[in-house]
Backbone:
C-alpha cells in the first residue's frame, strides 16, 4: 500500500522554536531508550493530571502518545521492482473454523509479495467475525536474513478475505527453510488477541 507523500500544513516556521523542537526529538529518543521501545501507555490518571497541569486536551495527549505505537508505519516503503516469477505455495493452517492459506509468493528482484487468505464457513459467522477490526502481522524465520514485512492490507467480505505483505529483501529462490509466523493484532493499538500460528513452507 503506497503511502501518500507528506506535505507540511504550512510553509511558516518560527525558528525561535528550533531548539525546543530538537529537545522534543531528544526526549522521544530518550523515551525509546529507557523503555527499550516498549513503553506501554500512560494511565488515564496520568493523562488527566498532565492535561490539567500543562493545559492540554486529554484526547490530544491520548493521540500524541498513541503515535509512539506506530513508528514502524512510517518506515520507507519498498516498491517491488523487476518481476521474476510466481511461486505456488498452498500451505495452510486451520483453527476455530477458520482456514488460513498462503497461496503463492510473487518474486521480484528487490522484494517478495506474500499472498494470504482467510476463509470460514457461513455457519461459523457468529463465532468469529472478520470485521472485528483486527489484522495479522507477519514475521519470517529461517536463514540468516532479517526480513522486513509490511502489511499492505486487502479486503473481502462475508467468509473470504485476502491480504498481501511486502517482504524485503526478496525471499530466497528455495523457500524450504522459510517459516511464516502470523500474529493477530487488535486495532487501533496493535494488541495481540492470542491467535498466532506458523506456516512452514518446507513441510
Residues:
Amino acid at each position: 500500500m503506497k503511502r501518500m507523500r507528506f506535505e507540511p500544513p504550512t510553509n511558516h516556521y518560527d525558528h525561535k522554536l528550533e531548539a525546543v523542537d530538537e529537545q522534543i526529538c531528544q526526549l522521544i529518543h530518550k523515551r525509546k531508550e529507557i523503555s527499550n521501545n516498549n513503553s506501554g501507555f500512560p494511565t488515564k490518571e496520568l493523562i488527566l493530571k498532565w492535561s490539567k497541569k500543562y493545559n492540554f486536551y486529554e484526547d490530544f495527549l491520548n493521540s500524541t502518545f498513541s503515535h509512539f505505537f506506530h513508528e514502524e508505519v512510517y518506515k520507507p516503503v519498498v516498491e517491488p521492482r523487476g518481476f521474476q516469477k510466481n511461486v505456488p505455495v498452498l500451505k495452510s493452517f486451520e483453527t476455530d473454523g477458520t482456514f488460513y492459506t498462503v497461496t503463492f509468493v510473487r518474486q521480484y528482484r528487490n522484494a517478495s509479495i506474500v499472498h494470504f487468505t482467510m476463509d470460514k464457513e457461513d455457519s461459523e459467522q457468529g463465532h468469529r467475525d472478520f470485521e472485528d477490526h483486527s489484522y495479522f502481522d507477519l514475521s519470517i524465520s529461517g536463514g540468516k536474513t532479517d526480513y522486513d514485512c509490511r502489511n499492505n492490507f486487502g479486503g473481502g467480505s462475508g467468509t473470504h478475505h485476502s491480504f498481501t505483505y511486502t517482504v524485503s529483501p526478496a525471499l530466497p529462490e528455495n523457500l524450504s527453510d522459510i517459516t511464516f509466523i502470523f500474529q493477530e493484532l487488535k486495532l487501533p493499538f496493535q494488541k495481540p488477541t492470542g491467535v498466532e500460528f506458523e506456516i512452514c513452507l518446507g513441510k
